[in-house]
Design goal:
It contains 15 helices and 17 strands.
């Protein structure tokens, strides 16, 4: 028998004492807490004193009949399951009672097994209904509880230096910490309860919040941060994550605000410093490089071979510094939005053909083959972009392929359509890279150094510049490589580039 505290309360209403006693014995053995009433009025009085989950109700009783008791119980509590007890002669009445809301009926006389089956079904329905109500309660439970909870977690959130706002599934704020009010410029007494638009008006923030609390991002999705400006040259960065329920359902969203104004100022100062220093250094370095070239040309027969090697090394290093300065300036222009501001229609097949022809001499000097493969008609590869940006992207990739491919290697540039995008792949059978380098190859100043590549000069900025330019064109780039088997750099660019975003500052880095 179940614990008394967990017993289901059942009421037996019948004017026959034998029926009441028999039902009580059987139902008690089933783990029910049984009460009995001889009349309808007695039953209603008992139901006012304590709740019952199941009522066994005789339809034919003196005084208040069963149909009237059924009606009153239904008015008071529709969750009570009513099993009507009736004789065979009144089965039609029992059916009518079920139409009025009764759960089931059992005809007299009945066997104990019949009663156990009917009541067992009712008990199972009660159990399932209770589980469904609990599940629904948990599902409907909003994050408002978090706003009311006086716990250690809430204390931690209140003390965070970053702004935190928690939204429910309807986009209403249920928790705001003091830092959020401060960063958003809200009065200290501002409380939760309003939509996110009542606290932040930036369209990008509102769009990001709506997408998150609407469940657009599955669990584990990497949601990029969003930066926006406030009056007074203040900049905030927003990171958002969905708040997931036990079954993975989206209960809302949490947004974290960080003040990045100082970082923006530092970034601007860094760019200004790099630009100034680079401009100041470029001219004297170029002069030194030219003078070295002249000295080496004039004294090639007079200077010993050992000294010639030293001069060659100095010239090589000087050229490396000039290249570094050029790359830093390019990177600075990309990040400041001062590049690729005048897009025009470009025939990508013709541009790649020109690059391959131009770079052909460099490849030929190393005994390499450099070829272009175009799949489809040239007219299909027209896009709106800055030609200088495209030349920089693919010129860099082809140069890298030549530098990192051995003597006599093969380099292929292929152009094709891939769905709604143009796909350009630069493949070589050169030195290749280990997998561990692939995730970092587009980082600034990152270079892969092996016994085969350590002699190759470079700044480590070329691929970072390429990635920045590709993303400025709303495109993407990937790399595949294996040691000794070569590398494949693949660029996808959208076909429609009427007014591409090239040159606009990347707001999400």
């Amino acid at each position: 028998m179940e614990n008394k505290d967990a017993q289901i309360p059942v009421l037996v209403v019948d004017d026959e004492e034998d029926i009441r006693e028999a039902c009580t014995r059987i139902l008690t053995r089933m783990g029910c807490k049984v009460s009995a009433a001889p009349t309808g009025n007695d039953a209603l009085s008992l139901m006012e004193e304590e709740p019952f989950s199941i009522v066994l109700l005789d339809l034919k009783m003196p005084g208040l009949d069963g149909m009237e008791v059924l009606r009153i119980i239904q008015e008071r509590n529709k969750n009570v399951l009513i099993i009507v007890i009736t004789g065979y002669a009144t089965v039609e009445t029992a059916i009518e009672a079920m139409k009025q809301g009764a759960y089931d009926f059992i005809p007299k006389p009945f066997e104990p097994a019949q009663l156990r089956i009917v009541v067992g079904r009712a008990l199972e329905k009660q159990r399932l209904q209770a589980e469904a109500e609990l599940s629904e309660s948990l599902r409907q439970r909003t994050l408002l509880d978090l706003g009311k909870e006086k716990s250690r977690i809430r204390t931690i959130i209140e003390a965070l230096p970053n702004g935190v706002v928690v939204l429910n599934a309807q986009g209403k704020a249920v928790l705001l910490n003091p830092a959020f009010r401060l960063l958003a410029g809200l009065p200290p007494e501002t409380g939760p309860g309003g939509p996110i638009s009542a606290y932040l008006q930036d369209e990008g923030v509102l769009s990001l919040a709506t997408r998150i609390y609407s469940g657009e991002f599955p669990a584990g999705t990497d949601i990029p941060p969003y930066e926006f400006a406030l009056p007074g040259e203040r900049f905030l960065m927003v990171r958002g994550r969905p708040v997931l329920g036990p079954e993975g359902s989206c209960l809302g969203a949490v947004l974290v605000l960080t003040d990045v104004t100082s970082l923006k100022v530092l970034d601007r100062l860094k760019d200004e410093f790099v630009a100034k220093v680079s401009h100041e250094l470029r001219s004297p370095l170029a002069t030194i490089h030219e003078q070295l070239a002249m000295v080496m040309a004039d004294t090639v027969s007079q200077v010993p071979e050992k000294d010639q090697n030293v001069l060659s090394r100095v010239k090589e290093k000087t050229q490396g510094l000039i290249s570094l300065i050029g790359d830093l300036l390019d990177l600075s222009r990309i990040e400041s939005g001062a590049i690729a501001q005048k897009p025009s229609e470009v025939k990508l097949d013709e541009l790649l053909s020109a690059i391959v022809d131009f770079m052909g001499a460099q490849a030929k000097a190393k005994g390499q083959s450099l070829s272009l493969a175009i799949q489809g008609e040239g007219a299909r590869f027209r896009i709106m972009a800055d030609p200088m940006v495209l030349e920089s992207i693919f010129g860099n990739l082809v140069t890298n392929a030549i530098n990192y491919t051995q003597q006599g290697g093969e380099i292929t540039v292929s152009l094709s359509l891939d769905g709604g995008e143009i796909k350009v792949a630069v493949a070589d059978n050169g030195f290749g890279m280990e997998r561990k380098h692939l995730d970092r190859i587009f980082e600034k100043f990152y270079r892969v150094k092996t016994e085969q590549t350590r002699h190759i000069t470079g700044t480590g900025l070329g691929l970072s510049i390429v990635k920045g330019l590709v993303e400025s064109l709303k495109g993407r780039i990937s790399v595949g490589s294996a040691p000794g088997k070569g590398s494949v750099f693949t660029v996808w660019l959208p076909l429609s580039q009427e007014k591409n975003a090239a040159g606009k500052k990347l707001s999400q880095k």
